[in-house]
From TrEMBL:
Keyword DNA-binding: yes
Molecular function terms from GO: cobalamin binding; DNA binding; metal ion binding
PANTHER family linked to this entry: HTH-TYPE TRANSCRIPTIONAL REGULATOR XRE, TRACRIPTIONAL REGULATORY PROTEIN-RELATED-RELATED
Lineage, opening ranks: Bacteria, Bacillati, Bacillota, Clostridia, Eubacteriales
Keyword entries, A-Z: DNA-binding
Protein name: XRE family transcriptional regulator
Record flagged with keyword NADP: no
Span of domain B12-binding: 177-301
Matches recorded under InterPro entries: Cbl-bd_cap, Cobalamin-bd, Cobalamin-bd_sf, Cro/C1-type_HTH, Lambda_DNA-bd_dom_sf, Meth_synthase_dom
Amino acid sequence: MDKTISVNIKNLRKRDKLTQKQLSELLGVAQTTIANYENGIRVPDAEMLQKLAEVFKVSLDYLLGREKKEFNALEDNKSTIDDESLFEDKEKVFTIYLNYLLEGNSKAARDLIIDIYEKGLPMGFIYFGIFEKALKEVGNLWEAGKIDIWQEHFISEVTMDSMREIKAREKRKKHRACSVIGVTAGPELHNIGLKMVLDMLEMEGWNTVYLGSNVPVQSLVKAVATEKPDLVAISVTMEYHIDSAKYMVEAIKENFKENPPKIVIGGGAFKNNPELWKSTGADKFSSNTEDMLELMGRKYE
């Protein structure tokens, strides 16, 4: 067994102030197994290495000695979360969160988000200053071939779980009369950004109906007829789905000529051509909560 691994296990255990017995109970193995790992007598298999990494909140590369960091480096970052000065350096929060995601440490990522929320970091910043920013960075890494598609999917799921955790803790403002339906264009699967915006509107007191992806146009028309929303928000991330968005807008306007809802469109498909959204026939381009509140005559605080 590589002595680096045995030394790392022992040092990490001591760093976390765990006895061999306590660590063995966390891993569901005998105390002698931990002793054998630390003495270089036994080699943890792949499953056990993953469990060790999760318990110590480090990456596998770190545990195996492929990352040349001091053992207290990550712990130092974690300890600063308790320091209020951290909130003046929100970039640091983002970096720690993104690193947890890339390490595959979902528990540490969710715990971090809950911790900073409970310490006062606003839901809006967590959504758009951490979640959205992290997803964009992950998308860039995938496009560059630096991470695999399974990692992107994993990170998306962790993000959605964290969003649910924060939303469940946020106090909703007094109910307002406005309502919105949110949907992605055609088969567009990038829907987390849209969900973020609708979550924020819900906290503002709006009635929100999130339809997500792969909604047939006629089903969208039926939803509008039933819910009678003030606003329909359509999200488009990939340019080749813009035609699907156009069809949605046309169908809504054709079926509700007398009293059509406002239609807002947004998403990454328009980042290279800010005027392209006008070709869809939508009433306004928007990618954030504030624009929608202003469109409906509500001041965003």
